Amino acid sequence: MTVLTQQPDRPPSGRPSSPDGKRRRRPDDTRTALFFIAPAALGLAVFLAWPLIRGIWLSFTNYNLLTDPEFIGLANYRRLIADPIFWDSMLTTVWYVVLNIGIQTAAALTIALLMYRLTQSTLLRGLVLTPYLVSNVVAGLVWVWILDTQFGVGNQILGWLGIDPIGFFTDSAWAIPTIALVNVWRHMGYTALLIFAGLQTLPASVYEAARLDGSGEIRTFFSVTMPLLRPIMALVLIMTVIGSFQVFDTVAVTTNGGPANATNVLQLYIYDLAFDRFQFGYASAMSVGLLIVLGIITVIQYRMTRADSSDLA
Amino acid sequence: MTRKTFTRARRSRLLSATAVLAVGALALSGCGQREGDSEASSTIDYWLWDTQQLPAYQQCADLFEQQHPEYNVNITQTGWDDYWQRLTAGFLAGTGPDVFINHPSRYPQYADLEVLLPLDEQDATANQQASDYQDGLMELWTGSDGHRYGSPKDWDSIALFYNSDYLADGGVSPEELGSLEWNPEDGGSFEAAIAHLTVDDNGVRGDEPGFDKDNVAVYGLGLSDPGGGNTGQGQWGSFANGAGWEVTDEPFWGTEYNYDDPALHETLDWYFGLSDKGYMPKYGQFNQDDGTLSQLMSGSVAVVSDGSWMVPAYSSSENFEVGTARMPTGPDGTAPSTMSGVADSISADADNPEAAAEFVAFMGSQECQSVVAEAGVVFPARTDSVERTEEIWTEQGFDTSAFTDPVEEGDAFFLPITSHGADVAALTIPAFQEIWADRPPSAEVLDRINPAINDLFIADKEAEDADSGN
Fold first, then answer.
1. What are the tens digits of pLDDT across the range B388-403?
2. Which of A188, B152, B299, B333 would disulfide-bridge A107, Cβ 3.0–4.6 Å?
3. Which residue of A has its CA nearest to B9?
4. What DSSP letter does each residue of chain A carry, written as one string?
5. ABC transmembrane type-1 domain: which residues (chain A) (predicted)?
6. Interchain pair B113, A66: CB under 8 A
7. CB nearest A249 (choices: B14, B285, B426)
8. CA A172 – CA B430 distance, rounded (Å)
9. In a domain? residue A44
């Protein structure tokens, strides 16, 4: 989302303008600007641009980390296209993203609306955020205990309801939905807060108008809130989808890719190839693949949601 | 001490990933300063993973220091899960150990990466004699290039560990349990015994009418890891071998895996079929990280197959006696056991290779090996020390012949050593999980991955041919 702030013309001051009628030239701010940009630019170069360029370069090499990279052209990419595990892993990741983002966005929107319409309590708003304060690894481990097939509280409760124990993390059909839901649980408060912030920017006047026109809650939501919220939702979706594609830690501590590759998400496969199998070149090629996929998805989302324009303007 | 291989190592990948990245970053930026050379060269950094064995090796290190006052040995113990990641990070950043305990499933990769020092080229270790050690151990640690990369420390084999209370309840004597036979058709007397030792929630045994296989209180046979890495080392590897399966075309440095062998498929279909019948847990029923140890110790299973390196852990049982019995006889008439062992390796980056080699030689000497034998934690690699361990374990009530008989009768076989161990594991671990969890015919799964595995070696050969053609 690009935010262009237009510098309003200064109101004429008491000083006389220059004789030829041109406005007084502003002092050159370039040096000051560079001075302030430098730290961030340095960080960007060192932590983003350089690793990105190096990663792309490594994707054209055979590199085991201990000896020098050896240029092999497009071989890694040819292997990638022919690698069934890569595509399988891509599908797994997409399935995870669909579940995770779909449920998370719906839940977060509901929470945000409830916060906006029903309560002013800071305590409640704070509580919604608490799962987000727990680290992913801790959240993953806690859910592994809760959902343990033999001894987990979760399956105990299901037992009281007369339901047989479910291998939430050990059944290949359940594992991805379970991980998706664990991450929904952790992130929905944060997402809700983002949407809530967006809701607060909506002018009260439109709601007043809607009320005067006799619009009910539901009609108002679909005809007023949603359209006005579109740029915010677009931003939230773009951010959460990118984050969701990069799922790693929860999977690593709960299923570690199992059972039988059912949760072998892309980041895990990349990690495995790099740090267990020392194939940094191929792992880099897959990372570039993920970068391209994310780039395409972001552009599509951006276009489809017209994230750069607001109906409020 | 030969633990399950890659599955567990991959467990705590997250923490280790951070460590590797952090150390990698240090290495790239050149900040990973080593300690002052003068100080470092007199200190030998020694890494190992097994806490049970730590006291014995500490004692050896103390003895070494007494004899070589100019050196001191600094031992670091890291759990198996983090051990390999720390080593990798150490090799990258030059902060690794001088000497470390190495595993047969791992060392080929390190040898390929040229991070190990050939022991046959060091003065102190050049003259280690194969005849001093258990047969085959020296060969196990000899690379495809003919150099020796490990000084053997111990060896291990597989046997059945049983809960003696459950055995008595079922009226099965330890002798009976140790002389069973199995076949892939009906499981033979082994399956009959396992069925009999299985008890459901109502107290009905697995071989009695009315047995409820969905509500089992005690399973006859325990299982936690479907593959044990590539070869079912502590699980089905011995069974498959008794049915005529060879893992690779050559015992060491083979270039062709035989996961497409029908003998293996029959074995696996029968073995994991025990799970369908309720005689063995289903996939995911017990936490895999806890291993078969906790299944037996918690009274959830009657019998498990496990390695000799686990004897000290099982001997700590307080509620009931744990005993050992020999693996059953297979269709080919032998009762085989997988065999393996660990060794000391020297890092190519060692500060003082002479000192490191002297230390390694001492660790493989009779002096240190008898200390290890006295501790009763593993079978020492040296033939002149192994008897003492047998005595100690026998005093603790374990039948050590369950482990040693297959070796003496020539039915024990070493786990294969090949290149691409990690690549093979990446394909086999999910495959064995699938076979246990979803129970498809194992031929379907393994026939699919076997060509992919062998392609790795074919690609090597092509690359070699291309090189020599130039």
1. 999 999 998 899 999 9
2. A188
3. A276
4. ---PPP-PPPPP-SSPPPTTSPPPPPP--HHHHHHHHHHHHHHHIIIIIHHHHHHHHHTTEE--SSS--EE-TTHHHHHHHH-HHHHHHHHHHHHHHHHHHHHHHHHHHHHHHHHHHH---HHHHHHHHHHHHS-HHHHHHHHHHHT-TTT-HHHHHHHHTTPPP--TTTSHHHHHHHHHHHHHHHHHHHHHHHHHHHHHTS-HHHHHHHHHTT--HHHHIIIIIHHHHHHHHHHHHHHHHHHHHT--HHHHHHTTT-STTTT--HHHHHHIIIIIT--HHHHHHHHHHHHHHHHHHHHHHHHHHTTT--TT-
5. 90-301
6. yes
7. B14
8. 11
9. no
Check residue A66 and give its pLDDT. Answer: 78
To the nearest whole angstrom, how far is the Cα of A169 from the nearest Cα of chain B? 8
Please answer yes or no on whether B430 and A260 come within 8 Å at the CB atom. yes
Interchain proximity A150–B109, CB inside 8 Å: no
Q: Give chain A positions within 8 Å (CB) of B284.
A: 149, 167, 169-171, 259
- Could you tell me if residue A118 is inside a domain? yes
User: What is the CATH number assigned to the segment(s) B158-339+418-460?
Assistant: 3.40.190.10
pLDDT at B9 > cutoff 50 = no
Candidates B92, B284, B423; nearest CB to A277? B423
Could you tell me which residue, B94 or B292, shows the higher pLDDT? B292
What is the percent of chain A where pLDDT is above 70? 91
Q: How is residue B133 annotated by DSSP?
A: B
Does pLDDT of B7 surpass 60? no
Task: Indicate the domain borders of chain B.
Answer: 6-155+341-400, 158-339+418-460
Does A240 reside within a domain? yes
- Interface contact A69, partner B, CB < 8 A: no
Q: By the 8 A CB rule, do A71 and A61 touch?
A: yes
The CATH code of the domain that includes A268 is: 1.10.3720.10
Nearest residue of B to residue A65 by CA position?
B92
Q: Would you say residue A129 lies in a domain? A: yes
CB A168 within 8 A of CB A174: yes
**Length of chain B, please?**
470
**Closest CA in chain A for residue B287:** A148
CB distance B100 to B46 below 8 Å: yes
CB atoms within 10 A of CB A261: 22
What's chain A's length in residues? 313
Query: Who among B7, B423, B438 is closest to A260 (CB)?
Result: B438
CB contact under 8 Å between B113 and A64, yes or no, is yes
Q: Are B256 and B198 in contact (CB under 8 A)?
A: no
Of A137, A264, A277, which has the smallest distance from its Cβ to B14's Cβ? A137
Contact at CB, A260 and B437, closer than 8 angstroms: yes
Using an 8 Å CB-CB cutoff, list chain A residues near B10: 256-257, 272, 276
